[in-house]
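Attaching the record inline, Q. Sequence:
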Amino acid sequence: MMTEIVMNDTNTNPVRKIIHVDMDAFYASVEQRDNPELRGKPLAVGGSAARGVVAAASYEARAFGVHSAMPSITAKRKCPDLIFVPPRFDVYRAVSQQIREIFAEYTSMIEPLSLDEAYLDVTQNHKGMEIATEIALEIRTKIKQVTGLNASAGISYNKFLAKMASDLNKPNGQAVITPKNGPAFVETLPVKKFHGVGPATAERMHKLGIETGLDLKSKSLAFLQEHFGKAGPYFYGIARGIDERQVKPDRIRKSIGAEDTFAEDIDDLELATAELRPLAQKVWRYCETGGFSAKTVTVKIKYSDFTQATRSRTSSLPVADGGAVLETASALLATVHPFARPIRLLGITLSSLTNEEADDGRSQPQLDLGI
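Structure, as predicted:
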């Protein structure tokens, strides 16, 4: 076990101890747990129809290149023996609550990102334990005992590195990145693997000669702000192993959104409308996963010259399903056609969120899942 550094150089403020817990192939693992006939077989949770999308894949399926958000037809082509099962979000939420109760035995500083992952700040913890790696091991052991499922964990002094560490020894493992090793770890990491750097941003970085954390570190703050706007300071910090974001328990979520930057600009309405489908499926899946409903649908359009427009529609009743999201988004997109310029990016955001599971019928606080 690696020695944990408890104090910073000034010896006045304790270095934070952050754990990122990530369930291994959560939805698929629940299905395999509950149906022994599925164990050891390539499994996808999601719809098997031509326009279906994989919500989660078992590790047996991942060996064939199947992953979440992949079109079901592509997944089936990669893995002809792939078994599809429909999602059971009520069961996933119940299991997630069991896991959350285990977290609460150790700390009240819990920031859920989704049903299957969360940040924990255990700098000060209910059991007075000094070693965060021991806390992570205990939590993972209890999760296995209570739910029968495996969890992985990353331990570090900030959220970014804890998140990165949780992927190092998956599945069913954990890793620690200490303050001493953090900056060097980041320098060797390809930027495309950075949490918070999506495919489009990674491609932009590559065009600027930024391939690794060391390349990113070589760029000035002004340069990063010029090319990445508000994200510039964040990239500047994490390139140096610095992330000052706090673990925020039960943050308020105002919206759920997804967007995509196209390889080539689009100027045809039919093609642009087709690109809305996976975005609608993605945001609706977030709603189903978290038990939320939304009354406002917003479409974001970014043109080839980087100017952008948004169109929104709010209904008195929540949107019924993913199809309703797509229908509304498509109608909103049509209001800006013919397009002023070709489109380089489209996005869909759901807002005016409420918790569907509220049993008193009143409007509930909006939960921020960190999506």
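Confidence is low (pLDDT under 50) at residues 1-12, 357-371. The radius of gyration is 22 Å.

More tomorrow.
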